[in-house]
Amino acid sequence: xxxxxxxxxxxxxxxxxDANESCETLLSFDAESQEEVDALHxxxxxxxxxxxxxxxxxxxxxxxxxxxxxxxxxxNMLYMxx
Length: 82
Prior knowledge:
26% helix
């Protein structure tokens, strides 16, 4: 779930970090194809997102994209061709 910072801190029982200054997690989710990754990339660019990892192949079998949400949390969308 996504919460406002104050609500998150209440549930977590401690202060949250500034994800623009540090990385506490990298959230990844699957794509069904390279085209799905590319389509998300286009939507993210049009929305003004920060892309920290342009779409591309890693080790010849994984195609991915890295981006940050408005709070600075980092995400990956990955297509694994195996």
